[in-house]
Every structure is written in C-alpha cells, then in structure tokens.
Amino acid sequence: MLIADPHDPRLDDIRDLNKSDKSGEGLVIAEGHLVVSRLVSSRFPVRCIVGFANALKHYVETYGEPGCPMYEVDRATLAEVVGFDMHRGLVAAADRVAPLEVSEAISDAKTVVVLEGVGDHENIGSLFRNAAGMDVDAVLLGAGAADPLYRRSVRVSMGHVLRLPFARFDGGFTTWQRNLDLLADAGFHLVSLTPDNEAVHLAEALAGHDKVALMVGAEGPGLTEHAMRATHVRARIPMAEGTDSFNVATAAAIAFYERQRSLYQG
Amino acid sequence: MLIADPHDPRLDDIRDLNKSDKSGEGLVIAEGHLVVSRLVSSRFPVRCIVGFANALKHYVETYGEPGCPMYEVDRATLAEVVGFDMHRGLVAAADRVAPLEVSEAISDAKTVVVLEGVGDHENIGSLFRNAAGMDVDAVLLGAGAADPLYRRSVRVSMGHVLRLPFARFDGGFTTWQRNLDLLADAGFHLVSLTPDNEAVHLAEALAGHDKVALMVGAEGPGLTEHAMRATHVRARIPMAEGTDSFNVATAAAIAFYERQRSLYQG
C-alpha cells in the first residue's frame, strides 16, 4: 500500500529514527533485507515493514510474505519520516517482548556467555554476531550491559540479537551470585576472561568441559574481582608485550572459537 | 609554549581535522596520550605536540620529553583549530615516511598477514591492533587495502599502525604474484582464510609451520579466487549454520590466535 504523506500515522513506528532508537516506545527497529527477515522470523511481533517499491518486491520474492502490513514509500518520504537518507530503503518495526528468564535461556544450552558491564551498543551488537557465528546458545546480560535491542546493536549484530536467546542477569550482587550459582548447579564450568598473565591459557581453561559459561567484562576495566572470584577458573588470551587488551567482542570471539575448537577435537 | 591565537601557523599541522585526515598534506595525526607516545617512539618524525596545559604536563611526566615542539592551547582554541571539541586535549602531527619494501618488512618475520581489498579504515585499524596484540610481525597491504596512516585507522589501531611494520603489496596481478612467490621462497606457508566449508579447519591449516603468511580479504566478497589459488592451503573458521561471515578484523584475530596457539604448544 503506497503512502505518500510523510505525516501519515501509520509511519509513526519508524519516525525520527535519527533522534531515537524507539526503545522508549517499546519498539525494535530492523534495517535492510537480511535483518528485517531475521526480525520477521523472530519471537518479536512485527508491526510493519516500510520500504521502496523495489525493496518490498525483492523482500517478498526472497523471504516470502511477512504476515504484517507493508507500506510503500518513495525515497523523499522515507527520508523525511526517519530523518536521514536510508539508501537501503527497507525498515521494519516490532514490539518488544518480555526478556527470557535465565533458567529458560540456559535450559538446553552448552555454551553461554555472561557479560559484566559491557555498556557499548556497538560492542554488544558485535558480541552477539560473533556468538551466533560460533554456536553460543545464550547471552546473559549482567549489570551495566547495554540493551541488545537498541537500534545500533540490532544493526551491528546483523540481526542476531533477534535470534540468539538472552536474559537479564543483574539485580545487584545477591542476584548476580544467585545466577552464577544457578549456572554452576546446572553443570556449567565458569570461566573468567582476563588479560592477567597469571591466568591459565584459554585452551587449558576450556578443554574437557561439557558445558561452559564464559564471563567477559567491559573493555578497559574488564571483569571485577568479585565476578572473577565467583568463577571456577581465570583464562587469558596470551598477548604480545607492550600491547593493550583486545576489544571485548574480539576477545569474546577468540574464546568462542576456542570453545568450538575444544568440542571439534572431541 | 602557550599559543592563544587559533590562526597561529604553528597550529596548521592539526588544523581542520574534522574536514581532512591530513594525508593530503603528508602528515600522520595521533590523538591521546597512549597513541601520541607511540608516535613519538615510532619511525615517523614528530613535528609537534599540541595540548591543554595539564595534558602536556601529564604527557612529559609519563613518557618524558618528546624532543619536538610542544604547544599549549586552551580548550576553545583547540576546538577552533581542529574543528571539534577534543576532550582528551592532546594531539600530535608527524611526517609520513616512505613505506617499507616487502623484503624489509618480512626479513625477520615468522608471522605475516596479507590483505586483499580491505578498504575500510576502521577495519584496517582494528586489524593492526589485533595483529600487534598477537605477535604478528608485519602487515602486507594488497590491492584495495585502505591507508593504515589515515587518522581514523591510527586511532582505532591504538597507534599500532605506527609500530607494526607494513609494506605495500600491490601493483597489479604480476606484482602480487611476484610478492607471493617472494613469501613462498622465503619459506612462508601461505594460508587463505575463507568461510568455504570445503576448506580445512584453521587449526589443521596452521599446525607445524615455522613461518606463516595469513591472507584475508574484504568483508563480504572475501578473497578472490586467484588470490586463494596462489596460497598453499585454504583454511576456514567453522561457523554455525545460518550465520554470516565474521568481520574481517575479527576473523583475522581468530587466525592470529590460532597461530600463536600452534607455536605455544610447540
């Protein structure tokens, strides 16, 4: 259905994306064909897809009918509504749903990652992308972790925040500790990632465990001492002298790789 | 020496950074204490360091006298000169120097990375940071690789583009092939990184080699077939079904990790 008027209220879900990621309105925004298709096949109820005529046509041809309203707009209208020139010409909005419980997120999981204080939306997005790429089963968001459903996180994750189960793991020290106990009771081997030279090599820390929970902290400060103390082992990625810690999503990717490698070797 | 006039020509080296990375003027720009210190200890001749009084004082206390002019400016002056509010308050400029020859860059190297078509400045910066962190000895820039000395690359690399040797590897197909032959003749095991499921596991591809050259391509297209054909083996990082390739700097980081791991195990 063609909408020519930029003030049409049916376009409100994607209005002023340059000023807001729509979190405040309880919405999740997806941009581009691949990410929109991941939103459509996710647990989030899609409200609408808006795009150029050819982008909508291409979407339906590639992914089928989405089962939600599709609004056709021209380039000028879309630019006026979202607040910038969206050259890919396809955007969708969905309602947020309640986050999973930790117990749900980990129920069938073999590999999970626990974040403490990863507050950057781009890092969170990259981390989900890397986790999805290497068969991590769930992401547990500790205190200070950024919202994975923020528009930028959705985009950087290539939509994997919409697919990969995650749960909130925060609520202060007591809850944090209780959740870690829950993981340990469920048979997870808890591993802290740290640049500390005293820690054991990542490969040794991960070898021979059926279930692994990898804990990573924010770039810069890293994990707190109390978080590391609550894990079974501290693991390091060996680094060259005179260099800095890695970006948190990169360090996590290496750990996910090592985890898959340990399973691959049997 | 305090400079109060934003039009003072001694500040020309850092003028209008918002509009230009100064490459066109043959300059390299470093921002912040750590990166400036890496510029000062690099092979690039530093022309000046400009900063707030406390930033300059802190720099000298931490890293010693830099052996170049230091100009003190206040916040408003610096903002007017560079074109944005530079809250860290420390910036330096150096002259570019001629790039190394490939033969120089690889002379004592055990691990090198060869880039084909990695055109994004942020990816190039991340890649250098990851390479430096995992003892890669040199970066060889093939056709289409972005300039590592671009301001954004310098910043994202944490200054490692200023420390890690690199050389241009391009000049068309003939030169590319000749350079690969040079690597092979020098005893390097040439390894292509590809998401192709037919390729061997990265761990198998890297095991048991004294010298390794890892070749990576741009995100999206990846390495060209002719580049891969010129290597000894094609290696893959196993990926979960239904996921995309990794960011190129992330994939490279995993390969660097695996390389270090193979040496660590002996």
TrEMBL record, chains A, B:
One of its GO terms (biological process) is methylation. Keywords: Methyltransferase, Transferase. GO terms for molecular function: methyltransferase activity. Pfam families: SpoU_methylase. The keyword Transferase applies. Residues 111-257 form the tRNA/rRNA methyltransferase SpoU type domain. CDD domains: SpoU-like_rRNA-MTase (cd18095). It comes from the Bacteria. The keyword Transcription does not apply. Gene3D superfamilies: 3.40.1280.10. This is RNA methyltransferase, TrmH family. It comes from Corynebacterium ammoniagenes DSM 20306.
